[in-house]
Each structure stands twice: as C-alpha cells, then as structure tokens.
Design goal:
The structure holds two protein chains of two kinds. Chain A is about 50% helix and about 10% strand. Chain A is α/β, with parallel strands linked by helices. By secondary structure, chain B is an alpha/beta fold. Chain B is about 35% helix and about 20% strand. In chain B, strand 5 (about 145-150) and strand 6 (about 155-160) form a beta hairpin. Classes of the chains: A alpha/beta, B alpha/beta.
C-alpha cells in the first residue's frame, strides 16, 4: 500500500473494502475454503494437538537462548563459506542487499515469496539502484505487475479475479491472455522461466534456519524457491532473527503442522533445505551465499510485551478465521502483515502509534488462538496494546476522555446508580423498540455502525435491592 | 553498519533480562542418530510392503503417478512408455553412479536422447552453462530417491556430484526411481536421518541442498483454482523397484 493510501484513516479503508462486492465474495470463498482444508487436515492427524504444544514449547525454548542459537547458526553458515550480515533496521537491510547486488554486478534479481523482503520494502530500493526485482511466486508476480501489495500472507492476489489478471497480463506483457487460470499460469511459467535462467541474484526469505547445520529452509508449492536457490550465481536469504530453530529434530515438528495450518496440505510441495554455497562436484547452486539477519524491532520484543508474537510461523491461519479480516481483507490493515497477527507484528516493526486504530480492529473472540499452530494468545496482546495506546496518549482525546469517564463511573457505585437513572431519563427521545440506533452530537460516532442497548427500565441493581427487601 | 558484536550483544542483553514465559525445552535429539537410523532401516526391512502401500496412497493423493516393477532392467520400459505417451524425446538423467544403475544404453535403444549428467564438477563456466541448457530444454528428468516418506507421499533428494538439483526441477516431467531401502514411515524418522547425515552417519551425497518433493509443482493463486506445473514439473512419477537396485 502506498503512503498516500496509508494517509486514509483505517475506518475509511475498511469501509471501502466492505463496499467492494467482489472483494467480499472473494474473501468469503477463500477464507471459508482455507478453514475447511485446515480443519480436515488436523481431523485426520491425531498427533497434531500434541505437536502444536511441542512447537509452541520449541519456539519459547529457542527464544530463551536466542543469542546462543544465532551464534551457532552464524558459525555454521560461515564454516560452509557463506556470509552473514546484521541489519538493525529496515534501511540497513535494504542497503546490505543493494550493496551485494552492486558488488556482484547483478542487473536482475529473482525473488521467491518472502514476507521479510516485503516488510523492508526491498523492491523499491533495488529499482532505485537500477536492479530489476522479479517476484516469481505467481500471486506475488501478479501484484507486482499491478503495483500492489499482498492482501493475504499465503494467497497474496486473493483479491483479484481471473478477468483482472488476464487484463493485467495482456497490458503488461503485451500478449493475448485469456481469463483462464490454467492458461494464465502457463504464460507466467514461460515469462518467469526466462528470468530464472538469466538472473544473477536470487533473493529469498527463510521459513526456518537450522542452527545446528547452518541450513536455510524454504517452503513453497510452486518450485520457485528451488529455482531461486539453484540457478542464480548469488543467493541472499533474509530472515527475522526469530526464525532460527536449534536442530533438524525441531524442524520436523514445525514441518508437520505448518502446511496443514496454511493450506491443509500434509506438506507443501517443496521443502528446500539449502546449506551455504554450492559444494565441490555440484552442477548448480550459488557461488556466493549471504544470510541477512533482520532485527527491525524484533529484538526489543524478546523482553517486551509482544514476545509471544515472535513465535509466528506466517501460516495465515489466524487471518482466515478472523471475523474482521474476513470482512475487510488484507489491504485495509495498511501494512505488510494483515490480520490479527498482523496488528501485533505492525506494532512490533512500526511502533505502537501505527496501530492506534488497528488495535481495536478485533472482536477479541479468540478464534485466532484456536487456529494458530503455536497457540499465540493474540487477544491478550491486543488488549495490552489498547491499554498502551491509551496510557501513552496515542489514542485520540475523545476516546481517552470517554474511557476515563467510564472508569470513574464503574468505580463509584453511587455515581453509577445516579448515572443509570439519569441515562434512563435522557435516552427517552432516542430509544426505539428496545434499541438506540442514533445519538446526537459526537455520541453519534458510537451509533454510526452499531446499536446501543438502552438502560433497562429496571436495572439489575434495582431488582437486586427489592429482592433483598423481600427476603428479609 | 551494525557489527556482529553489537547485534548479538543487544540480543544477549534482552535474553538476559527477559522473564521466561514458561518452562520449555526444544525437541530431544537422538543421541546416536546413525545407530537409530540403522534401527529404523532394519525394522522396515520386514514390513516394507505396508510402508510402500501407505506411500503409494499418499503419493497418489498428491497427484503423483506410481509404478511398480520387479527389477531395475524393467525401468527403461516404463520410462519409454511415459515418454512415448507425451511425445517426449529428450531425457536428462542423474549420473549412473547416483542412480545405482546405468540405464542410458537401454533408454537410448528405445529412441530417447539421453543426457547423463557428469559425476564430476564441470571444469569450465561454458560447460556448466551447456549442461544447464540441456536440463532446461529436456522433456523428462530421471533421478534416484534418498528417502520416500509414507506419511506424506514425499520424495527426498540430496544434491551432489552427479545429482544436479535441476534434474528434478526444470523438465516438465520428473521420474524418480527407488527401492525399499529408501522407504521410511514418518517425518519424525526423516528427522533421525537428517540428524545422522549431518552427525555421526554418512550422507547419501555431499551437496548443499536437500529437497523434499511432495507431488507436482502447484499453485492456487488465481481464484484458488488448483493448477499444476507452475514452475517445477507438471508431473511426478515414482517407479518402485522390488529387487534392491544396488543388489
């Protein structure tokens, strides 16, 4: 999403999404399908629940000694002849990668799907340096041609129809493209095959990195991850520091639940484990391997309130089940990571002020915790964020005043009883059929999108008091 | 520029002062993975037919095509039938030492243009380019298999000399040949083998890539319509050989 779009308030972005009938239909179909696939995958996998608990424990255990595991990883990557870089900020990550591209004389970079490179806005930086970035995941390729951003973590072009993709291909690739997914996929295969064979630089993220052996693990369905790590001369992998796992034994626990959570597959088609540059005797594989370790706000949360969000596997399961995501889709969130986990990651990477509205874009229903393969307690952290938004005075003042008043009221029984009586008198002109649907002045903000239940003709306290009188 | 010392220092500082959410342990690694891997192989020696049946079911479930032959000399017949049905002529293959058998003469006799990848690293950039161009235009890619996982219908291929990564990736049709020695039941068992290969055991090859392949390349990125062969092969065949290939 562009900065101009971000300047639009969240409420308007969400409102626009809700009025977009195609988006609404696409979201319902996609999220419902993913929910069913995930449910079926776990229903026929009785050990799944225990593995989820174990995966959660492994993430926490790794975090408890993250420095040690990263040192092991770095040592192994270097032993294998790879180079490790340290990026404290998004800008630093961009400049490290642009430098590698320049030094190796790369003119084109093929990329496999990576949320980390989306997060650091790498493509813009590469373009500015005269290097052409080519997204090779079909969904990412589509949105790159359309100059958009992904709307779902694992299905980035979920918001586009085949007709729109056909028009886009016809216009951008200057060739006839029929609105048929099979034909469109074939066109993309042809276009991108050329790029894989020509590119000097391959850029990937990392689903996991195994500390023990210095192995970067990529999970894809299309095979682009394999292309990008096998064909170009240079491979750069960008990973958040939290992606390290101690051993292959740990890795297997995650592989057993990751694809099931994301797409309902037992495993994704390709799990590629690459270890440094190509070895003696090999025909392919990069001559140079670089691992960029990314902080970008993660390190501060090791001991911070968002620590648990560092366990996220980026499977997208929490998006599909979220009643808010299902209504507004990914773009309305405005940042790289959408959905419930996206709010937490945005707070982590962009700072709390970025989520002053988003922190409220959740019904706190807990569906995300149920769906999360590592059971991240997203609602708890959202509540903490709301508190922080209030306490640090990031929230707009009417909101803060309203909550302050409410807190005062709830702490003083007499005042509360008086307010109830006053409310009952004042609501008379507005209550219709047991609902208050429209309030005057700025109170109208509340009733703009929802009804307010009126104060009861007899409040609970009044009932309670008279019951007590009867009993004695 | 952030240095390694600064970067790790900040992490160490955070780790030191942050409370643990709960008592947690990472997965327990097998203390002697090579020995444990050997035990898994021995157990499977008896009951491989069940494991094979489970593999077949899962492999077909991910749109793989399963074949079964009695001995390795029947493999060229299956390969040439697959080629014939697809009007395919060019075949790129792992080196015979990596396959465990030299199938090139028999395949050639059946009218296929066979390009066997060399067992040594190419001596020049030009030679490397030439070999890659062959893989890129081939119709069929013929490889061995290091592990076949019954739980998921997955083929595990280790790269190395004579085992290019591209053979199972660039051609539109991948044909993999394996026998009972490759069969394992579960992902957990694969973990033991991976630990062994990197630890006290001997890996099948010394390359830098281990690939898990679970069916043909696929995408559902346009309106969730499942489409095969987006970047990798559109078809994956697994030929099971009853008589162990290496005798």
């Amino acid at each position: 999403m562009s900065d101009a779009e971000l300047a639009t308030p969240f409420r308007q972005r969400a409102g626009g999404a809700i009025k977009d009938t195609f988006l609404q239909e696409a979201l319902t179909i996609a999220t419902t399908k993913f929910i069913g696939l995930r449910r079926d995958a776990f229903a026929s996998f009785p050990e799944g629940e225990a593995l989820r608990d174990q995966a959660r424990a492994i993430k926490e255990a790794t975090l408890q000694e993250l420095d040690r595991h990263l040192e092991t990883l770095i040592g192994n990557v270097e032993r294998l002849g790879g180079h490790v870089h340290y990026a404290a900020t998004h800008a630093e990550a961009r400049s490290i990668i642009v430098d590698i591209a320049r030094r190796t004389g790369a003119r084109m970079a093929v990329k496999s799907k990576s949320m980390a490179t989306e997060e650091i806005h790498l493509n813009e930086a590469l373009e500015a340096a005269g290097i052409t970035p080519v997204e090779t995941d079909l969904g990412e390729y589509i949105i790159q041609l359309a100059h958009e951003r992904p709307s779902h973590i694992i299905a980035p072009a979920i918001h586009k129809t085949k007709g729109q993709v056909a028009e886009l291909f016809s216009r951008e690739l200057k060739r006839h493209a029929p609105p048929d997914p099979e034909a469109l996929t074939r066109i993309a295969r042809g276009e991108l095959r050329e790029k894989f064979l020509q590119a000097d630089l391959g850029i990937t993220g990392a689903n996991f990195a195994v500390a023990d052996t210095g192995t970067v693990v990529l999970v894809t369905n299309e095979g682009n991850g394999r292309m990008v790590t096998s064909l170009p001369r240079v491979h750069v992998a960008v990973m958040g520091v939290e992606k390290v796992v101690p051993s292959f034994t740990d890795l297997m626990v995650f592989l057993a639940i990751l694809a099931k959570s994301a797409t309902g597959q037992k495993l994704s088609v390709y799990t590629s484990m690459v270890q440094g540059p190509r070895r003696g005797g090999e025909l392919e594989g990069p001559e140079e391997f670089h691992l960029v370790l990314l902080d970008g706000g993660r390190i501060a949360q090791i001991g911070g309130p968002l620590r648990e969000a560092l366990s996220c596997l980026r499977c997208g399961a929490c998006l599909n089940v979220c009643p808010v995501y299902r209504q507004i889709g990914g773009h309305a969130y405005g940042y790289t990571y959408p959905g419930p986990i996206g709010i937490l990651l945005t707070a982590m990477l962009e700072g709390t002020p970025a989520v002053k509205d988003l922190a409220h874009a959740s019904s706190l229903c807990g569906a995300c915790v149920e769906a999360c393969p590592v059971r991240i307690d997203i609602p708890r952290m959202l509540i903490d964020l709301r508190r922080e938004v209030d306490e640090k005075r990031i929230a707009p003042w009417p909101e803060r005043v309203a909550f302050k008043l409410l807190a005062t009221l709830l702490q003083r029984p007499r005042l509360y009883r008086f307010a109830a009586r006053a409310g009952r008198a004042l609501q008379r002109p507005f209550a219709r059929e047991g609902r208050i649907s429209r309030l005057p002045l700025f109170f109208g903000e509340w009733t703009r999108t929802r009804d307010l239940p009126p104060v009861a003709s007899r409040t609970f306290q009044e009932c309670w008091a008279s019951e007590k009188d009867l009993a004695t | 520029m952030t240095t390694r010392a600064e970067f790790l220092g900040r992490i160490r500082e955070q780790v030191r002062r942050s409370p643990r959410r709960f008592q947690a342990d990472s997965a327990r690694r097998p203390p002697h993975p090579a020995a444990e891997a050997e035990t898994i192989r021995r157990e499977l020696h008896e009951r491989w037919p069940e494991t094979l049946e489970a593999f077949r079911r899962e492999f077909e479930g991910v749109a793989g095509v399963f074949h079964r032959v009695a001995s390795i000399d029947m493999v060229p017949g299956v390969v040439s039938r697959i080629a014939h049905e697809r009007e395919a002529r060019e075949l790129v293959s792992w080196h015979s030492t990596a396959l465990g058998a030299d199938l090139a003469p028999a395949l050639g006799a059946r009218g296929l243009a066979v390009h066997q990848m060399p067992a040594e690293e190419p001596h020049s950039v030009a030679e490397r380019e030439r070999l890659r161009a062959i893989a890129a235009r081939a119709d069929l890619g013929l490889t061995g298999v290091d592990l076949a996982i019954a739980e998921t219908g997955t083929l595990v291929l280790v790269s190395g000399a004579g085992r290019p990564r591209s053979t199972s990736l660039l051609p539109p049709c991948h044909i993999a040949v394996f026998d009972r020695t490759a069969l394992v039941d579960s992902l957990r068992q694969v973990g033991v083998f991976l630990e062994a290969w990197h630890g006290d055991g001997r890996p099948p090859a010394a390359g830098g890539a281990v690939n898990f392949i679970t069916g043909p390349s696929r995408t559902a990125d346009i309106e969730l319509t499942l489409t095969r062969g987006v970047h990798g092969p559109k078809e994956v065949h697994a030929i099971f050989v009853e008589q162990p290939i290496r005798g």
